[in-house]
């Protein structure tokens, strides 16, 4: 159990927009635009719904905001709480729920700014992650915290990641992606890829 009261949140929550769009790339564009506006106005975006593909749009909004600042040499910290790594290759150039973190890590290769991303895959399940995708994350400098390594101390392990961010002067901004299929099926059965093991 995590005591969220320690966060001392004093935000006023409002629903800005529901993205109702059949074309995924257009939905990502619109979502990124809304998230950018929230960030630019000092808000904390909390995006709910859809597939994990939206993580790229959320990251893209943060990255564009940082790129517009004078100091464009920052690192963005990203935590993907998920049973899967979600670094599969795009199909015919199109994104899907399995591609967002490859899009994020590959985007840097074509970017003229010095903004980089530190990716942490949290609670990934080895039975649902291919060797090639595992190698890809590690080759890109990402960290994989497997479910077996965090299952008994989830809040502590998560806090350790945040503390590592705080100890790095270059990671001043970040976001967390939380995919419900990281939770075991007996506690959360209504996901696209349920598993017998997972967070609870």
List the helices and strands and how they pair.
Layout: H1 24-40, H2 54-67, E1 75-81, H3 100-107, E2 116-124, H4 131-139, E3 143-146, H5 147-150, H6 154-167, E4 171-178
Parallel strand pairs: 1-2, 1-4, 2-3
Helix pairs in contact: 1-2, 2-3
Description of the structure:
By secondary structure, the chain is an alpha/beta fold. Helix content is 33%, strand content 14%. The protein has six helices and four strands. It has helices spanning 24-40, 54-67, 100-107, 131-139, 147-150, 154-167, and strands at 75-81, 116-124, 143-146, 171-178. Strands 3-2-1-4 form a four-stranded parallel sheet, sandwiched between helices. Strand 1 (75-81), helix 3 and strand 2 (116-124) form a beta-alpha-beta unit. Helix 1 (24-40) packs across helix 2 and helix 2 (54-67) packs parallel to helix 3. The longest helix has 17 residues, at 24-40. It is globular.
């Amino acid at each position: 159990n995590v005591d969220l009261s320690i966060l001392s949140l004093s935000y006023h929550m409002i629903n800005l927009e529901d993205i109702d769009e059949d074309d995924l790339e257009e939905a990502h564009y619109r979502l990124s635009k809304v998230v950018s506006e929230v960030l630019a106005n000092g808000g904390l975006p909390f995006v709910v719904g859809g597939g994990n593909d939206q993580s790229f749009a959320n990251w893209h909004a943060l990255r564009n905001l940082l790129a517009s600042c004078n100091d464009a040499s920052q690192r963005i910290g990203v935590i993907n709480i998920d049973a899967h790594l979600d670094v599969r290759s795009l199909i015919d150039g199109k994104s899907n729920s399995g591609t967002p973190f490859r899009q994020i890590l590959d985007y840097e290769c074509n970017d003229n700014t010095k903004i980089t991303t530190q990716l942490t895959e949290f609670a990934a399940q080895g039975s649902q992650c291919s060797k090639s995708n595992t190698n890809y994350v590690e080759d890109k400098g990402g960290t994989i915290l497997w479910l077996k390594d965090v299952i008994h101390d989830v809040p502590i392990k998560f806090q350790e990641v945040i503390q590592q961010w705080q100890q790095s002067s270059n990671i001043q901004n970040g976001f967390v992606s939380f995919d419900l299929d990281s939770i075991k099926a007996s506690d959360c059965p209504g996901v696209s890829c349920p598993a017998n093991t997972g967070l609870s």
